[in-house]
Amino acid sequence: MTIPHALAAALSQMPALAELFRLFLSGKHLNRMAEPALWAELEQHEASYVGLFAALGFELRLDARGFAWFHNSDANSNIGKISRQLALLFMVIFDAQANAGKALQRFTDWLIDSAWLAEVYKQQQDLLDAEGLNPDALVELMGRACNLGFAVPEPAGWRLLPAVCRYLDHFESLALTAKTDGDEESTPAAEDWTADAPDDEENS
User: Fold this and answer.
1) Which residues pair with 71 in a beta bridge?
2) How many helices (H) and strands (E) are present in the chain, helices listed first?
3) Which of 52, 81, 125, 203 is deepest in the core (most CB within 10 A)?
4) Which region holds residue 182: left if phi is over 0, alpha if psi is between -120 and 50, else beta?
5) Are 28 and 148 in contact (CB under 8 A)?
């Protein structure tokens, strides 16, 4: 089989290539819950997609909990404004739910609405005001989270998607480090969150 024919045969096994590439290149996360057909296609031909994207200079990562993304391994000390605000949004959501006795690993079960976000704002007003986030801005930020594959809109509000595990993992890691160091547990600063979160360059 000639190289062009071999390439054509390989690409024929990846019918969602263009759609997946556009999705990942935009900075969005693919979630099994939100897009099961695309997820099944990616999972079925995982090695082919990972190899092809690697040849193009992109590192595709799949998490067994049901999400995938283009990973940026470059350390980025200058986290963009949107990245910082998303980190802060998820941070205060987790903090409020932990205080309410909710199991953080069940975050995909939570229904978040604008009234609840307003209550969270009251609890963390000083922290959120410092970042310029009022209740209306939190609602707008949830829309950004949806664009990037971290949440999905529902008629009564929003639900978080498995990709938020990237933030939750880091939250728990920071909390464990603080506990190991003998410090009092505290809410991590936004700058402590993972540096390869979506930045201002990514399209929505």
Assistant:
1) 59
2) 9, 5
3) 52
4) left
5) yes
